[in-house]
Every structure is written in structure tokens, then in C-alpha cells.
Design goal:
two-stranded parallel sheet; Rossmann fold; 295 residues; binds NADP nicotinamide-adenine-dinucleotide phosphate; globular; alpha/beta; 13 strands; 7-stranded parallel beta sheet; 40% helix
């Protein structure tokens, strides 16, 4: 029986990982969230509290820790760099150090926003990073903490444009706006790849299921690439939203606090080769989202 501690169990990814672990007889899950309650079968854990992280890992002795926590408000981070750093750097370090002391392996999640977006083909793991936002910089520092503290005992999965039936995300926001407005403007000059959180959660399980341990850095997103504009058009097409026009905007026409990479598609070939997982195209996953949300 493998013991898995899921930190951040109430976030989009955390809920998807939890649901997969709960469905498996060969795993025993320990679920920890910032606002978790015992009634929900979870324990409270602030990963920024080094003592609390140490105590939980020492007590539960997990084989794996899956870090689903993060400060994910990309624009908010520009005004609140301290809070962002506390979670995306110090919180990650706390988890990595506790794993190191107690012999647990860490599966950590990072982002396409570690790149500056000046590339023109999908980024591979060895491409140089150059984040252009506070969020991206702190996520990159978090990666480095993991690599420094747990070399050989960690897997880092960089993902992108994450959405799910849970919480707040781009797909759910567009669906809401599609019913509220006659027209919306969406950025059409940023390319990347939407990732359905259950697919990323399946990849996390694949890492833990693997007979051989394959530590290192991997890219894990949906397959293919698109723009926020075309993504929105596909969301509306599948959902049958017909009364809201989608207007393409340039990044300049839609200024945000944080800069975002213009191109951030990630090459998932390494993960697919090493773990033998077939990753679905982003359009297929979007259709799956609609099946799941209408259940
Ligand atoms: N969302 C995206 O588009 C995207 C894109 C690329 C990469 N990623 C990465 O993918 C991973 C998962 O993202 P997600 O979208 O699932 O995130 P999410 O839904 O925002 O969930 C993050 C979780 O972290 C928890 N948390 C916040 N502060 C904490 C603390 N001090 N201690 C413990 N937990 C704390 C939050 O709890 P509360 O909700 O209770 O505050 C929340 O449950 C992250 O590493 C993120 O950087 C996400």
C-alpha cells in the first residue's frame, strides 16, 4: 500500500488527485488543505508553516507527497509578491525539506509561465527559462528549491492553462460571461495549451504507479496548441452559446497587471516516452469537461 499526502487537496488539481487516489485500493491517501476539515476527511495544513509540515510528514510517513498548493493569481501576485513568494517558494521548500528528512518522494507542479514566450516551437524541458511575471519567477524558484533539496527524489510537472469542473478557471468564466454578455473580447495573440486537471492528475498517478522511479522535470499539458480566443470559440461551440459574439483582441488591447508569454506551448514528448502515457488533444479533453460538468 502506497501512502500519499496530497497537499492543497481543495484546489482544482488537489481535488482531481484526491478523487483518483480514493478510487484506488493500492493507495492510502492523506488529504491536507488550508481550510480543510476533519468532517471532509482531511487535515488542516498551511504549507508556509514549516513546523506544521514537518509534524504532519513525520506523523503520516507518506511515500509520496503531491504538492497541489500554489499562489495562482497571476495578476494579484504583481501587487502581493510577498504572499506569492511565501507559498510558491517557502511553502515548496518546507515540503521538500520534510520529504528529505522522512524519505518521501515529492511530486511538484510548476508552470509554462517560467518561459518568456519568445519561442516559436513547443518548449522542451532543457530550454532556457526567463519568467516575465512575479508568479513565473516564484514558480521557477520553487522548482529550484525542489531540485536542490530533493535531487533524485522528486518529479516536477510543468503544466499550463489548467481548468476543471472545480473552482474558478478560464472555461467556467467564459461560460458565465457567455450567458451575461452579447459580446466579449478575448486575447488572440497568446498561444499555449489548455490542460484538463483530471489529465494532469492521471499523470501524477502514472508517476507514482511506475515500477521504476523516474525523477526529473517534465512538461505535462494537453496536446496541441491554441489561443485564448480560439479556446473560447471552441468552448462556446461545444456549449451551444450562440448569443455572445467573441471578438479577437491583441495583448495590447487587453492590458493586465502581469505580463504573460506570447507563446508557451510545452512539448510533452519526454513525459509520454518515459511514462508511456498517451495524452489527449486539448479539444478532446474539453469535450470530456462538458460530459463531467453535466453529470
Ligand atoms: N491554474 C492554472 O491555470 C495553472 C497554470 C499553470 C500551472 N498551474 C499550477 O498547477 C498547480 C495546481 O493549480 P490549481 O489551479 O489546482 O490551483 P488552485 O485551484 O488555485 O489551488 C491551490 C490550492 O492551494 C491552497 N493553498 C493556498 N495557500 C495555501 C497554504 N498556505 N497552505 C496550503 N494550501 C494552500 C488553496 O487553498 P484555498 O483555496 O483554501 O485558499 C488551494 O486549494 C499549481 O502548482 C499551479 O501553479 C496552474
Amino acid at each position: 500500500m502506497k501512502r500519499v499526502l496530497v497537499a492543497g487537496c481543495d484546489g482544482q488539481l488537489g481535488r482531481c488527485v484526491r478523487s483518483l487516489v480514493e478510487g484506488r485500493a493500492d493507495y492510502s491517501g492523506i488529504y491536507a488543505g488550508l481550510h480543510a476539515s476533519e468532517a471532509a476527511g482531511a487535515v488542516r495544513l498551511d504549507v508556509c508553516d514549516a513546523g506544521a509540515v514537518e509534524a504532519l510528514v513525520a506523523r503520516m510517513k507518506p511515500d509520496y507527497v503531491v504538492n497541489c498548493t500554489a499562489y495562482t493569481n497571476v495578476d494579484g501576485a504583481e501587487d502581493d509578491a510577498e504572499a506569492c513568494r511565501l507559498l510558491n517558494v517557502d511553502g515548496v521548500r518546507n515540503l521538500a525539506e520534510a520529504c528529505s528528512r522522512h524519505g518521501a518522494r515529492l511530486i511538484h507542479v510548476s508552470t509554462d509561465y517560467v518561459f518568456d514566450g519568445t519561442g516559436s516551437r513547443p518548449y522542451i524541458e532543457t530550454d532556457p527559462t526567463n519568467p516575465v511575471s512575479v508568479y513565473g519567477r516564484t514558480k521557477l524558484e520553487g522548482e529550484r528549491q525542489v531540485e536542490r533539496i530533493l535531487p533524485g527524489q522528486s518529479v516536477i510537472l510543468r503544466t499550463a492553462w489548467l481548468y476543471s469542473v472545480y473552482g474558478r478557471n478560464f472555461v467556467k468564466t467564459m461560460l458565465r460571461l457567455g450567458t451575461e454578455r452579447d459580446e466579449i473580447g478575448v486575447v488572440a495573440d497568446q498561444r499555449g495549451t489548455p490542460t484538463y486537471a483530471p489529465v494532469l492528475a492521471e499523470a501524477v498517478l502514472r508517476v507514482m504507479d511506475s515500477v521504476e522511479w523516474h525523477p526529473g522535470l517534465y512538461h505535462l499539458t494537453g496536446k496541441g496548441q491554441t489561443t485564448w480566443y480560439d479556446f473560447t470559440r471552441e468552448i462556446f461551440r461545444i456549449a451551444g452559446v450562440g448569443n455572445c459574439a467573441v471578438k479577437p483582441l491583441t495583448t495590447e488591447q487587453y492590458p493586465t497587471k502581469a505580463s504573460r508569454p506570447a507563446y508557451s506551448a510545452l512539448d510533452t514528448g519526454k513525459f509520454e516516452r518515459v511514462f508511456g502515457m498517451e495524452i489527449p488533444g486539448w479539444e478532446d479533453s474539453l469535450r470530456r469537461f462538458f460530459v463531467d460538468i453535466n453529470r
